[in-house]
Amino acid sequence: MSEHRDAREALELAAVEPGGLDRLEAGDTAEAAVVVAHLAGCPACLEEMARLRRADALLRPILASAPDPALRERTLAFVRAAGVPRGAAGVPRGASDVPGGASREPASRVPAVRRRAPLGWAAALAAALVVGLLGGVTLARVAAPDGNADPAVAFDQVTRETTALIASGDSREMVLTGDPGTGGTLILSPSAGRMVVSATGLGAPPRGSEYRCWVEVNGTRVALGAMWWAGDVAWWAGDVAIPAVIPPGVVYGVSLVEEGAPGPGTVVLTGSL
Amino acid sequence: MGDGRSEPPATDVVLVAAMAAGSEDALAALYDRHAPNIHATALRLGGDRGVAEDVVQEVFLTLWNRAEQFDPAIGSLAAWLGSIARHRAIDRLRAASRRPRLVSLGAGLDDEPAADALERAAARRSVGASLGAPDPAAALDASEARAAIAAALTAMPDPEREVILLAYRDELSQSEIAAHLGWPLGTVKTRTRRALARMRLVLADVYGPSMAPVAVEPAEDSPLALHGSGGEA
Q1: Bridge-partner residues for A198, per DSSP?
Q2: In the list A94, A106, A209, B72, which could disulfide-bond A112, CB 3.0-4.6 Å?
C-alpha cells in the first residue's frame, strides 16, 4: 500500500507544478520511472492522475487570477472610508438581516454599520468627491476652470493615498482647523514615510498665490509643498521623513503664500497630534 | 430550522437591498460572490494585479454608492458589476498611457472604439475564449467555482493558502517555495497536498465527484474504489 501512497504523493505534487504531470509521466527521473511503472499496473492511480489533470485544468486559471485574500478586508475598509453614508441612524443592520449572507467574517471584525469613524473628515471629503466623479479618472494633472487639477485627480489621489497610509498600520491622523467653514485632515505614516493633507473651504487662492503645507518643529517651519486644488478641495501628498515617535509640540499647517515667495504667508489651517 | 438544512443563500437582489440599507455584511457577501470574477475580468483586461485590485475596490465602492441604480429587470448584478469593472479597467489602461497596444489591436479596424479593441483582445487571451461559443451553464459553473475557490482560500489556514498560491499563482516549484518561505521541503509538500485536497473538494461540490480524489486503497472487490458515487464527468 505504501506504493499507492508514494504514487499519490508524487502525482499530487507534480500536479501543482505547470507541466508537472507530463514530466512525471515521461518517467525521465528514477522517481518518475517508479511512478510510471506503478501506474501501468494500477487503474486506481491512473484514474487519480486523470482526475488531477481535470482538476488542474480548472484550478490553474482560477487560482492564477484569484484575488489576494487580503483584498477583501482592504476593499471593505475602502468602501467604509470613502462610501456614502447608509443605514438608518442608530439602527445597526447586520448578518441577521441577510439570510444566507456572509458568515465567515466574525462580527467583531466587521461591525454591522460603521460609517465614517475611521477616517472622519477625510472620508467625508472622499465621499463627496466620489459622487459624480467615478465615471472617468485621468491621472494627468490638467488645468481646470475651477482649479489647477482635474477633480478626478483629487478623488483618485486623496482616496488612494489615504487608503494606502491607513493600510500601513501605523498611520496617525490629525484635524487641521482654521476659520469657520474651513477644515482639513492630515494623515501620516512613519513606516511609509508619507503624508497626505486635504482641506476644504479654503476657496481658490488669489491669483499669484498658493496654499502651502508646512511642519513646524521647535519654532522652525519647514515647507512641505504647494497644494493642488480642484473646486473646493485642496490637497498635497508626498514623501516625508517621519520619526516613529513624533515629539510633542510639532505643529502642522497650511498657509496662503505668494507663489515663489519663501513664506511665511498667512496661516489658514493648523493642527498637532 | 430543526431539519439541519442550511438556509439558502440570499439572492443578489436581497443582498443589494440590505446593503443599500446599510448592511456591511451584505456588502461582504456580495464581495464574496462577485469579487473573484471582477478581479479575473480586470486582470484579463489590464494584465496587472495592482490594476485589478484597484478595479475591484472601485467597483464595490460604486456598488455601495449607487446601489439604487441596480435594476434586476434590466440585467443581473453580475452583468452590471462586470460592465463597471470593464469600464474601470479600460479607464486605468488609458490613464496609464498604454495606448500603443491599441495600435496593433486595432489594425484593420480603424473605426473600432478603443474600449472594444481592448475587450476583444482580452477575450482572445481569456481561458474560455478558445472553447468556442459561450456556454451559459459552463459560465455559471465557472463563476460558482471561482467564488467557491476564493471562499475556500479565505477560510483555509494561512500556511496552506500561502503554498497553494505560490505554487499556482507564482508558479514556484516545491523547492522554490521551501527556499522562499524558509520552511522544510517536507512541510511545504504536506501543506501543498492538504491545500490541493481542499481545492479538489470545492471543485467536486461544483462539478461533481469525479473531481474528488480516488481512494488511496482500492477495495478488495473493486479495482476502482472511488470517493463519492460518480464516475467520469
Answers
A1: A185, A235
A2: A94
**Alpha carbon of B40: minimum distance to chain A alpha carbons (Å):** 5
Record the pTM.
0.53
Are both B119 and B172 inside the same structural domain? no
Q: Pairing mode, if any, of strands A228-230 and A220-226?
A: unpaired
Instruction: Mark yes or no for CB contact A101/B161 under 8 Å.
Output: no
Q: Give the rounded distance of the alpha carbon of B53 from its chain centre.
A: 13
Q: What angle do CA A237, A242, A243 make, to 5 degrees?
A: 165
Sign, Cα dihedral of A24, A29, A32, A33: positive
pLDDT digits (tens, 9 = 90+) for B13-70: 999 999 999 899 999 999 999 999 999 989 888 778 888 998 899 899 999 988 988 9
Residue that has been written with the C-alpha cell 474601470 in this structure? B88
| ipTM of model over 0.95 | no
Mutation test of the interface with chain A: which of B6, B16, B24, choosing the one with the most A Cβ atoms within 10 A?
B24
In-domain check, residue B67: yes
Domains and CATH numbers, chain A: 2-64 (no CATH), 121-271 (2.60.40)
* Helices and strands in chain A, H and E counts: 7, 9
Instruction: Please give the residue range of the domain that contains residue B177.
Output: 156-211
Q: Are residue B30 and residue B124 in the same domain, yes or no?
A: yes
